[in-house]
Amino acid sequence: MRASAPGGRLIGFDRDAVAIEAASKALSDFAGRFELHHGNFSELAGTIERGSCDGVLLDLGVSSPQLDQAERGFSFQQQGPLDMRMDRRQALTAAELVNGWDARELAKIFREFGDEPQAARFARGIAQERTRARFETTTQLARLIERLAPRHGSKRHPATRVFQALRMAVNDEGRSLKSGLAAACTCLRSGGRLVVITFHSLEDRIVKEFGREKTRDYTFEGDVDVPELRRPVAPGMKWVQRKAVQPSEAEVKENPRARSAQLRVLEKI
Length: 269
Ligand SMILES: C[S@@+](CC[C@H](N)C(=O)[O-])C[C@H]1O[C@@H](n2cnc3c(N)ncnc32)[C@H](O)[C@@H]1O
Prior knowledge:
Distance between the termini: 25 Å
Radius of gyration: 21 Å
Strand order of the largest sheet: 3-4-8-7
Strand content: 15-25%
Number of strands: 8
Order of helices and strands: EHEEHHHHHHHEHEEEHE
Bound molecules: S-adenosylmethionine
């Protein structure tokens, strides 16, 4: 907000009502110059006029308050209900997924959203374990994964990828990101910038693919790009810099959760 020029206006979206409440308090000095919406940023084109924004920032993933509050169920380090919903108005929780989806579906999300090499094994282990008792808590699930894949001194908890995958599935994050990027582009004026901060490779891949498509000076029919069948088009966006911006050492020291962040910037033409 401090970066906004006098007379500038900020429109914020978050799926989490707690984040909206915190933002509204933090921004109280700027009353009249911002509006906050409790909703998915994929819906921003329904609220914001086409071609009206100077900049859009998508700061993806989960927030520190979500991770730190055990009752939100995002962290395997603290005991909480298997919830993981960013928007608590939504019906689907991680418990429903872990207890209700069949092993093949679970393995698919562990593989696709978590890049988990032991996806099928973990999914089978969960399906077997839940015949004895329903999974209710984060630590119950984390303990099972630890039993299936002991740490052997590794720094990373073996349930890290499973938890990431469940969170992405519960919140349908990949699809929200794809529609959010398209909506952001519609809302930008020409010369306006889209800034995206991602926290893992799957998110970053989606942003790079979106950028590749928008910056291409040709189009093609169907799924396969055959050079002879390309048709020239004017690109809709350009990369502001080729490589992703990484946090500095000093920033990571101050905020270790920034260590995996990557920032990419596109400009609308
Ligand atoms: C990394 S945190 C943002 C932290 C914030 N910039 C700050 O400095 O405190 C990501 C936030 O985005 C929200 N979020 C994630 N995906 C979203 C989506 N598709 N639509 C709206 N909000 C989303 C989460 O609920 C979370 O509060």
